[in-house]
Amino acid sequence: MGDRVLSDLFAPSRVAVVGATESEGSIGRAIVTNLRDDFDGETVPVNPNYDEVFGLDCYPDLASAPDVDLAVVVVPPHVAVDVVRGAGEAGVENVVVITAGFGETGSEGAERERELQEVAEEYDINLVGPNSLGVMSTPLGLNATFGPENALSGSMSFMSQSGAFITAVLDWANDEGLGFKDVVSLGNKAVLDETDFVRAWGDDPDTDVILAYLEGVEDGGEFISSAREATDDTPIVMVKSGRTDAGAQAVSSHTGTLAGSDRAYEAGLEQAGVLRVDTVQELFDFAQILAGQPLPEKDDVAIVTNAGGPGVMTTDAVGDSELSLASFSEDTLSALSEALPEEANIYNPIDTIGDADIDRFAEAVDIALADDNVGCAVVLSAPTAVLDYGELAEVIGELQAKHAKPVAAAMMGGERTENAEETLREDGIPNYFDPARAVRSLDALATFRDISEREYEDPTRFEVDEEHAEEILSRAKDRGDNRLGVEAMDLLSAYGIPTPKGAIAEAPEDAVNAAQDIEGDVVMKIVSPDILHKSDIGGVKVGVPDEDVYDAYEDLVTRARNYQPDATILGVQVQEMVNLDSGTETIIGMNRDPQFGPLLLFGLGGIFVEIIEDTTFRVAPVSEREAREMVNDIETAPLLRGARGRDAANVGSIVESIQRLSQLVTDFPAILELDVNPLVATPDGVQAIDIRLTVDTDEL
Predict the structure, then answer these.
(1) Is the whole-model pTM more than 0.85?
(2) 35-68, pLDDT tens digit by residue?
(3) DSSP string for 276-293
(4) CA 34, 40, 46 angle in degrees (round to 5)?
(5) What angle do CA 220, 223, 229 make, to 5 degrees?
(6) Which site among 41, 220, 326, 629 is 20 to 30 Å from 390 CA-CA?
(7) b/e sequence 460-484, b meaning 16+ C-beta within 10 Å
(8) What is the rounded (10 degree) CA torsion for 405, 156, 411, 350?
């Protein structure tokens, strides 16, 4: 699916409503009425049963109607596909299918939805829905929905997977005076999905902020790349509902256990530059400030208040955020002490005290914003008899414009704030009853500044032996089992991830020969795809001298047979010893997520991985910068850098191993999950000691 041009979807000059009617309580009636009331263009009813609807000429089908740019389909499900085909034949490029009864209703509906996709593809139709509330665009007064009211105009564009959520949000936003540019109800996303709208709105000069309420993302990789492009200058704020770990497959790897689907969303959305929020309130708190305020050059906040208690609350909120409290310069402090009474506090947070009138308050805000150490400000006030909120709102707007630094207001109170809020809104300044919300919103501005400045680099491509890797993976298919263990160590070698010297012996004599090729004592491990936790059953022997290798082989096989008589035993791995004392055990792994694809994991490894759970995730493929961030993000990263007199590990080689693993799992979609545990990191480099993976044998 290439980049679709959606401008006519939101700016049609003529809209047809197929299934238009005057029947009370019908959706067809609601949509015609909404269009007739507000739409600047022409509304064309289509219904073979009427000659006219609400005084407008009504046509039997799209073929006989005048040319339309957008068709809204409100007919029963069994005829909807034929109507869309008719739209294609009539050359209509944009179609919104309101009708439900498709993929959300079971197998018959799913079949109908597939037909709809095929028709849309055949005629290259931009199709919204099915099962959609419709679309809106305020510049033309377009309300092609069956919602009860139109949106106010503004610069936020909003998509939602839930139609009911849109009606609730619009009802609330209209009371709050919040406006939108475009609104779309995604419905079942049969053709157009969130990625298409991110692209369209990212290119739209009239959309300042993209808002989304999503239950899922159709294609994570596509979404990440289009969102990265959009967030160069257009922020995306999203509520992603459904935080549960409904993992895609039965999970047998550590990575799979730790990487529930919400982890993939968290990682994917972060890499895409999306601001993910948990609540609808935050969605609009962030949206308002992003649409109305400049980005801060510094993360240091000044707080100006007339109330000590709320000032302390605001300071606490700064402590919980990524922002910091600004330190004022000497000039600022002397200007403040001149401007304020003796009992006022001139240090941050500035307390102008309860008897502050408008002039004193204004002077304090002006002095604070003028300080070069200040990146942004919260102006906080409790109602007093000497302070008029309307005047304060005007002053805040003037001073914000004068200093061009972002400001959030927290005028606490009820009715008396209403007119002041309106004044602030006209200047693009949001007002929050709770000062902690003001701080979180300024924090979102600073986060978006960092996102918009990000440089995305391409992943490194390493020289690898792809053929050898494929041959190893196909062994699982030959064996009729989808799991591989240490017998697949060569898979890592083929992709340049260092492994200790070793071999897999199928008889005790082979083990003895293998041990003689290796210097010093050896490690021996049972090789069985059915025995996952080898050390728990005594399936591992460490430091075996050459003369004991024969007996050790037989002992390991006997133990495995006693533990699990039906287990497939492929032999015993004989491996050179790796000095664990000078190294740190880490884990690198991958679990394939249904939406985002390969999700990489890095963390502390060995036996601690599931106990401590100090892990970090990214969606592959990753660049060197992202791989390095993974290593730096874990809480135990200081261990790797040589804390407490330990030898520092060679972090560069860990970073490279993550990148090589990223390339492996991107090259082979058949790998569903993979763990390298432990990957021992020493001052000299890394060694992959053990591997297990699951493959989809149908993909090979």
Answers:
(1) yes
(2) 999 999 999 999 999 999 999 999 999 999 999 9
(3) EESSHHHHHHHHHHHHHS
(4) 55
(5) 145
(6) 326
(7) eeeebeeeebeebbebbbeeeebbb
(8) -20
